[in-house]
Amino acid sequence: MRIDIITIFPEMFQGPFSESIVKRAIDKGLVEIHLHQLRDFTDDKHKKVDDYAFSGGAGMVMMIEPISKAIDFLKSQRNYDEVIYTSPDGDILEQSLANKMSLYDNIIILCGHYKGIDERIREHYITKEISIGNYVLSGGELAAAVISDSIIRLIPGVLGDETSALTDSFQNGLVSPPVYTRPREFKGWKVPDILLSGNDKLIEEWKHRESLKRTKSRRPNLYDE
């Protein structure tokens, strides 16, 4: 998979993409992540990529020309499955969407900033708008990192245990059950006996009951669905 990210702050990705699972995927050659400085696509001598909104109002708007040039340049090199814009009013990122996108070959992620981007980019270039929650960030870089991580960890060969991602929260519409490790007892707090029984059938039944219970109490909307 190849992920191209268009941003005015490429340095923000150094941490998220240079550690842990994402770095492992890059080192294995399972994913390529390319960061593109949007300011490289403007003809303005001051490298300006934003301007005042027509009709006035507070805040700046990311200009159409540099974004258009950046996307056109990338699309001239290869075909893309999606051109994604990180937007507060986009579709909420859910596990089912991450699953779908993990099967793609190439995606572009455009990081929004200021009051957003010129609407004509959204109308003519963007194929998918994604939000990571009902709140506003200072820019789309953190959202782009989250989207990338949620996709990359699902690519076969990235995780040490191929079945690990299949048992994550939300994969079956429920949150995960409680998990425990050694020691068996700590400060008088004990691991449930069923998990030490060795009876796989009973253990799976217990996990399913606990998933249902936890989903009902913590994510009742998922439980109702």
Could you explain how this protein is built, in words?
This protein has 225 residues and is an alpha/beta fold. The chain is 32% helix and 19% strand. It folds into 2 domains: 2-152, Alpha/beta knot; 169-224, Orthogonal Bundle (Trp Operon Repressor, Chain A). The strands form 3 sheets. Strands 2-1-6-5-7 form a 5-stranded parallel β-sheet. A two-stranded antiparallel sheet has the order 3-4. It has a two-stranded antiparallel ribbon with strand order 8-9. It has 8 helices and 9 strands. α4 (95-101) links the parallel β5 (82-92) and β6 (106-111).
Topology diagram in text:
Elements: E1 2-7, H1 14-17, H2 20-27, E2 32-37, E3 50-52, E4 60-62, H3 64-75, E5 82-92, H4 95-101, E6 106-111, H5 119-124, E7 128-131, H6 141-152, E8 185-186, E9 189-190, H7 200-218, H8 220-224
Parallel strand pairs: 1-2, 1-6, 5-6, 5-7
Antiparallel strand pairs: 3-4, 8-9
